[in-house]
Write the structure tokens for this entry.
Amino acid sequence: MTEVNVWPGADAYRQSYADGCIQLEVADGVGVIRFNRPEKHNAMSVEMWEGFGYALKHAAGLSFLRVLVLVGAGEKAFVSGADISQFERSRSTPEQRAATAARTSAWRELLPAFPHPTIACIRGYCLGGGLALAMSVHIRLAAESSQFGIPAARLSIGYPFNSVRTLVSLVGPSWARMLLYSGMRIGSEEAERIGLINRRHAEATLWQETLNLARSIADNAPLSVATARLAVDNVLRDPDDRDIDSVAQMVERCANSEDFQEGRRAFMEKRAPSFTGR
């Protein structure tokens, strides 16, 4: 099943980039960026990588967005990697590689630094640069039929340090070596077992399960979620680079917030809270 909208009413806000191959839509605090090139298994062209950066920058500035979902169009792929057919004209010389990097690399900083929780909804192939992209989000949900791999060694491509570091943090050095050295593919069951994905679902329920999770995050107190995000990010940094004071300040901000009072009142009144982020 191919989804078009987040849910009824998703057309309240939409933008597209890279001639429609990157689509952004938002409804009720949940944003979706869709990689929309299903006829090529959502292989990322230079224009798509560039458009993805613009979409992330745009989404980060939306005050009404609370969580962002990344998903591939169609049933066969999340993102199957970079568009290899462009390599001859985009990566053959140092000059071409530098020019391509200048156009395509913005997402590498924007996605890990995105100001709200991020979720990857993975169906089908999630390979190479597509896996690097998925690993850069906070939570990964996948269909049981999904396949994961890093074929860089089969193409004489060096996988970037930041992506290798993220891979090691998720699966450990032994499995990182196995995947990088061999170029092998693994299924969703093994990906879940080694920690590459958080949870797998049946194909028919994956999208709804993703939306349910996104909705539950969007409904929670934004300051509390932001504090958790900041704390986890600091745990993952080198000890000398951690900013523990900023986490303590966010904890104190939560305690002094209107949302804290609202959460307490809602609990006592046995109703759902209405959080505003203040």
